[in-house]
Specification:
Largest sheet: 4 strands, mixed
Number of domains: 1
CATH topology: L-arginine/glycine Amidinotransferase, Chain A
Low-confidence stretches: none
Strand content: 25-35%
Number of helices: 9
Protein name: Agmatine deiminase
InterPro entries: Peptidyl-Arg-deiminase_porph
GO molecular function: agmatine deiminase activity; protein-arginine deiminase activity
Oligomer: single chain
Number of strands: 19
CATH superfamily: L-arginine/glycine Amidinotransferase, Chain A
Keywords: Hydrolase
Distance between the termini: 33 Å
Helix content: 10-25%
GO biological process, one term: putrescine biosynthetic process
Order of helices and strands: EEHEHEHEEHHEEEHHEEEHEEEEEHEE
CATH architecture: 5-stranded Propeller
Radius of gyration: 19 Å
CATH class: Alpha Beta
């Protein structure tokens, strides 16, 4: 690996988690009360372990968010706000992908965010990394590298040791003119990876992202992968997710060994106004000392918790109610971006 810059794994020490508070000018407007409850539960869970940095659109939204959090007895010593304009709250895809240098400084990769291939307005979201950097929320040792290439953080997964995992469907949808070999070379160069592993199978109905990897398969360590399985042969996802499981079984670590695989249970279909919603347990967030997992009020929630406890034996597994999030076709990991240890400015880190 390049010994100057490295893409840390999500399980490495963090200084905080970045989110954006939902408000009436985002796509959550029609179900704002429901989604606010999820955000309150999320902030409560994060602040048990580390700080959270919350983007707010203006002072009024900050005042309201602070009131809601205080009334729910959140540890406000670990909550920090920053004013920034955003189209929506999917910060996994509009926030910074952070590389760390050997000397402890950082490079924030600012890829183009196009609203998942032009599906939604995204001009404010596309400016978010620069706005946050200009607001001084990051360490003075962090610089921004803007890359004129459409890529979302939810579309890539790293083991922190030079292996990137992604899906062909998503990258090909964004860049249909590019060959896989060229895409692999570019992503390896930008994110300082030794190799790129591609999955050709796996999808979720109701997913706007064109099969982001973080809805399907996630590294739990350099030699293990947690993935969303489907054991219901009558379900429309069964063939694709079974094929994806077979692809994962065929992958090898850098030592030439098969990965240890942890299949997640399949929740019952969630139908809203006639459409299937994309419920995935693979959309979990790893933080200091814990894994926050999406819960859907399904009988499989506890079984998913048990699988994650096996994959992350040294971390507490915390369920966060996320049924309101899948109404907008994303879940817990999609609305968050972890910030590696040392990245937050000292004046906002407890």
């Amino acid at each position: 690996m390049n010994d100057t810059l490295r893409f840390p794994a999500e399980w490495e020490p963090q200084s905080g988690v970045l989110i954006a508070w939902p408000h009436a000018d985002t796509d959550w407007a029609d179900r704002l009360a429901d989604v606010e409850e999820t955000y309150i539960a999320l902030v409560a869970a994060i602040t048990r372990f580390q700080p959270v940095l919350i983007c707010v659109g203006d002072d009024d939204i900050e005042t309201y968010a602070e009131m809601r959090l205080r009334s729910n007895r959140i540890d406000m010593e670990r909550v920090h706000f920053v004013t920034a304009q955003y189209d929506d709250t999917w910060l996994r895809d509009s926030g910074p992908i952070t590389l760390k240098r050997a000397d402890g400084s950082f490079q924030l990769l600012d890829f183009r965010f196009t609203g998942w291939g032009g599906k939604f307005e995204a001009s404010l979201d596309d400016q978010l990394v620069g706005v946050l950097h200009g607001a001084g929320v990051f360490s003075s040792s962090a610089d921004v590298r803007s890359i004129s290439f459409a890529l979302e953080g939810g579309g890539v997964e790293t083991d922190g040791a030079g292996t990137l995992l992604t899906t062909w469907q998503c990258l090909h949808e964004r860049h249909p003119e590019r060959e896989r070999e060229a895409l692999s070379a570019d992503m390896a160069q930008w994110m300082h990876q030794d190799r790129v592993l591609w999955l050709d199978h796996g999808y979720l109905e109701g997913d706007d992202t064109d099969a982001h990897i973080d809805t399907l398969a996630r590294f739990a360590s350099t030699d293990s992968i947690v993935y969303q399985a489907c054991d219901d042969a009558s379900d429309s996802h069964h063939a694709e997710l079974t094929a994806m499981g077979n692809e994962l079984a065929a992958l090898r670590t850098t030592d030439g060994q098969p990965y240890r695989l942890f299949p997640l249970p399949w929740p019952q279909p969630v139908i809203d106004e006639g459409r299937r919603l994309a419920a995935s347990y693979a959309n979990f967030l790893i933080i200091n000392g814990a894994v926050l997992m999406p819960a859907y009020g399904d009988a499989a929630d506890d079984a998913a918790r048990d699988v994650l406890a096996q994959a992350f034996p040294d971390r507490e597994i915390v369920q966060v109610p996320c049924r309101s999030l899948i109404w907008q076709n994303g879940s817990l990991h999609c609305i968050t971006m972890q910030l590696p240890a040392g990245l937050l400015a000292t004046q906002i880190t407890p």
